[in-house]
Specification:
Elements (H helix, E strand, L loop, with lengths): L4 H9 L3 H6 L5 E3 L2 E4 L11 E4 L4 E4 L5 E2 L1 H9 L3 H11 L11 H28 L5 H9 L4 H6 L3 E3 L5 H8 L4 H7 L2 E4 L3 E4 L4 E7 L5 E8 L7 E3 L15 H4 L7 E4 L2 H9 L5 E3 L7 H8 L4 E4 L5 H16 L3 E4 L8 H8 L1 H9 L2 E2 H10 L7 H16 L4 H15 L3 H14 L24 H14 L1 H7 L11 H15 L5 H6 L4 H11 L8 H30 L2 H19 L11
Parallel strand pairs: 12-13, 12-14, 14-15
Antiparallel strand pairs: 1-2, 2-3, 3-4, 4-5, 6-9, 7-8, 9-10, 10-11, 15-16
Helix pairs in contact: 3-4, 5-9, 11-14, 14-15, 16-17, 17-19, 20-21, 20-22, 20-25, 25-26
């Protein structure tokens, strides 16, 4: 349900963000803010700041920021709705019930019936595993080293060999055929009637991140084909958009998520204590799964099979993870094939050592490159070195690039000075394979700005408007939302001017208006901007210069638009802004009350 802004604002106003965060982070007052060690990244010196008046938080180290709702979402891995309900309950509020149209109510009831059918199917399969007919499945699971507790936790079950047992069971529960048809659990044939899709298989329930069963994977007992069978795509199940065991892994306190290939790998990993493990669902990793993963972590560790197919799958996954804004590393399981085999052979402690020494994705990529060339052949090895230099040259951060050069050179016996010269030359000239990759949000990172500092001026103006009520009354006829050219600043400005016209300011409420976490972090960084002014004259001068910067940039942009399109309105706007800027420059500085005034 999409709640009204007024409801969200009321929930935020009834919860003090200092108390919410203080339950998880030790905070101490520092000036007008509270500071502490950031809960989202490792640090020894506090850079995490909570503003009591504005009800927002921001970390100057990792740039995480937001309000009480976003904190609950990121710290506890809640959805927006879960965080809102938690805070409402905490404040003794009852959220309004959702109002459905007749069509929406029918669709919701249909979906609820389908979820009920899936839940009952999971219970049926689990029960059958413990009966005589389920003996083959139970023997198989125990032969794989699974405990009864693990079998229970993952709800593992068995589809027997009779072909219609589940259908008869669900019909006994008064389930309608049109609902059962949509679950994907059955085959409806005109000639042969209805039959269970899954039979003679160990069953793995697949849940969404909230723990609701939406599909199944089945592993055949014996030599039947296919070995693994998944639920078909449908109203509930879309394999591109879900990750196996995310409903358990989402609560992890680990700093990363481990990605495996198969159900049994994930289950064995969880049983061994690696509860931050998930898997894609019978398909290569997808962009949608990477975006889902990004909601819960900033780093993914690939633990794919050690055969050629697994290594190639890792190579394909790395750029998808990068596009989603995730760091990635790759674990070597050699000489074992997969995590399940590794744990059974060497144990969990040995796997933890492999995790600790996992290569970054870049070192893994260069390692795979090295496998293609013979070191004993000077010409081939020179080709590899050039390929490695090309890959290094595509690292956008110069410091990171410089750190990788000696690591790669030491690993492959490459002269470091020669490699550094080649990488720098390629970095300046560009390489044929080089492509600029935008951040996952498609926008600049927080704090990033053009050489002319126009973004900084827009951010500073937003801070003035939020922090000083007089800033709006002094400039409302001079500067408006249209003067903020950055899309994120423009959205903040639009909401902020709307509040100011009503005589109020709610920074935390504005943050709730964003859907993109990167936008939320950016808004938090705007509201955590500090004005360093030693006296009233300095404050007025800073404010005046900020207004002038916005007007001048607007005039330049309008003049450029007029030159490109010939639009006279743009030319008139450019002239108007120039005249306003000149009038302000020639007059007294714009005044804001300073401290006790």
């Amino acid at each position: 349900m999409k709640y009204a802004d007024s409801v969200i604002d009321e929930v935020l106003s009834r919860n003090n963000i200092v108390e919410i965060i203080g339950e998880q982070v030790r905070l101490r007052r520092s000036g007008s803010n509270y500071i502490g060690l950031c809960p989202f990244h490792s640090e020894k010196t506090p850079s995490f700041s909570v503003n009591d008046r504005k009800q927002v938080y921001y970390c100057f180290g990792c740039h995480e920021g937001g309000n009480a709702i976003t904190f609950m979402m990121r710290y506890h891995n809640y959805t927006f709705s879960e965080a809102l309900h938690y805070l409402a309950d905490r404040a003794g509020m009852t959220l309004p019930e959702e109002e459905f149209t007749a069509e929406q109510r029918a669709a919701a009831e249909r979906r609820s019936s389908m979820l009920s059918a899936m839940k009952q199917a999971a219970g049926f399969y689990y029960y059958r595993l413990r009966t005589d007919v389920g003996a083959p499945g139970l023997r198989y699971l125990r032969s794989r080293g699974l405990s009864d507790e693990t079998i229970r936790r993952f709800g593992l079950g068995y589809a027997d060999q009779f072909g219609d047992s589940l259908y008869r069971y669900l019909k006994s529960k008064d389930m309608d055929d049109d609902i059962l048809m949509e679950t994907g659990l059955f085959r409806f044939e005109e000639k042969t009637g209805v039959s269970d899709r899954f039979w003679n298989r160990v069953m793995y329930p697949i849940s969404d991140e909230r723990g609701r069963v939406i599909g199944f994977g089945g592993r055949v007992m014996g030599e039947g084909k296919p070995k693994y069978l998944n639920s078909p795509e449908g109203a509930l199940f879309n394999k591109r958009r879900h990750l196996y065991a995310l409903n358990y892994a989402r609560t992890t306190r680990e700093h990363c998520m481990i990605l495996c290939e198969g159900y049994m790998d994930v289950i064995t990993m969880h049983q061994a204590g690696f509860t931050n493990t998930v898997a894609s669902l019978g398909t290569a990793l997808t962009p949608e799964q990477c975006q889902l993963l990004r909601r819960f972590t900033g780093e993914a560790v690939l633990m794919y099979d050690s055969d050629e197919a697994g290594m190639n799958a890792a190579l394909r996954a790395i750029p998808l993870l990068e596009e989603a804004g995730l760091r990635s590393r790759v674990v070597s399981l050699s000489p074992h094939k997969d995590p399940d085999e590794f744990i059974r052979a060497e144990g969990a402690d040995a796997l933890r050592e492999r995790l600790a020494s996992a290569d970054s994705s870049l070192l893994f990529e260069i390692g795979r490159l090295a496998d293609l060339y013979r070191r004993s052949d000077p010409q081939e090895w020179t080709t590899f070195q050039h390929k490695a230099a090309e890959r290094l040259s595509r690292i956008g951060d110069e410091l990171e690039r410089e750190n990788y050069i000696p690591a790669v050179c030491a690993r492959y016996g490459i002269p470091e000075d020669a490699m550094r010269r080649l990488v720098r030359r390629l970095s300046v000239a560009g390489t044929p394979a080089e492509k600029y990759r935008k951040p996952a949000s498609g926008r600049a990172a927080p704090g990033e700005q053009g050489a002319d500092g126009t973004l900084a001026s827009q951010m500073l103006m937003l801070h003035f408007l939020a922090a000083y009520p007089a800033a709006y009354s002094v400039t409302k006829d001079i500067v408006g939302p249209q003067d903020f050219r950055d899309p994120r600043c423009a959205k903040i400005a639009s909401a902020l001017y709307g509040q100011l016209a009503e005589g109020r300011v709610s920074e935390s409420g504005i943050i709730s208006g964003f859907d993109d976490p990167e936008d939320e972090r950016f808004a938090a960084s705007v509201f955590h901007t500090e004005i360093s002014a030693g006296n009233s004259a300095e404050l007025d001068r800073s404010f005046t210069e900020t207004v002038l910067a916005l007007l001048r940039e607007g005039a330049r942009a309008d003049a450029l638009l007029a030159a490109e399109t010939g639009e006279m309105e743009a030319l008139r706007d450019s002239v108007r802004r120039k005249q306003l800027a000149e009038k302000i420059r020639m007059g007294k500085p714009l005044h804001l009350p300073y401290e006790g005034e």
